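Continuing the series of single-chain predictions for the mutant panel. This is the parent chain; the variants come on the following pages.
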Amino acid sequence: MVRERKITVDDIDSDSEVSKTEPDAPVLFAGTDTSGLPANENDSVLRPKRIADMVGQQDVMDVLMIAIDAAKKRGEQLGHILFDGPPGLGKTTFATCIPREMDVAIEMTTGPSLKAPKELIPYLTNLERGSVLFIDEIHRLPKPVEEFLYTAMEDFRIDIVVGEGVNARTLNLSLQPFTLIGATTRAGMLSGPLRDRFHIRQHLGYYSIDDLVEILRRNALKLRVELKKDAAEEIANRSRGTPRIANNRFLWVRDYAMSKADGIVTKNITQRALEMMGIDDAGLDRQDRRYLETLIRVFHGGPAGLEAIGHTMSVSADTLEDEVEPFLLRSEFIIRTQRGRCATPKAFAMFK
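Parent structure:
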């Protein structure tokens, strides 16, 4: 049976603070910033401001634009939305674009920062009609906070218990109708009752090389960097289908080009810059290759347990599981079996 969380007045800390928010290869870009934005790598500069400005995830964009259009025509708030998918694929970008499309305000917080229901109350009570509450890493909400959200999401109210014992009574506090947007890298960790309260659930997948090249082209424009098309393709090929990684590697290559050359990002400059950072043609970094080398040379290709690999590398198992293994699994360098991790022939070929 689904529980709805009530809290007492004593649970509410009136002094608690609330965080708020906001020949040569062809030239892919050469020199004029038409966006009107400052030329720096601040995330707010590179992050698209409207859904139409985004690249990739076309199916997700189509669903959202229909939902937004329908909500605006009805004059109602948008339904609750859950984005899931690996890190760096645009969940936060979508969440910050949606309020602009709806012309409403947004409150932003994270699951780990909401340790008790009382810490959620200021966010809920500050919301205006139709505005957005964005909770990143929503899978990390404590159970009491999650349960407290149930009536807020469904009925736009929260229950507060006033008094104690036989004198206790429940105070129903009405909220303005709002939209909750949740983002998670682990949708399976959300409880069924919370997951079912989201009207729209969208999974974000990895990006194509062409999409990453277009993202890099646009960001070069914003940062006033001359970027050759084959250099953008080189960065995209080594970025694991992830815009955040592509942007970070582009910023490093830009710095390298400014320091070691004339500031123009060419394919040769890109290769030298990424090799200096230990990023190879397959997009593997030093930690990835060290993992594979440990699995192959120490454990003879496996099977080997994650803890054993971690101890040998002096790296925590959580770090390996969250940061190293996903790409190795997706790229078919390793497989998981009931007995442990095994290297594939593709991995063995790297160390011949």
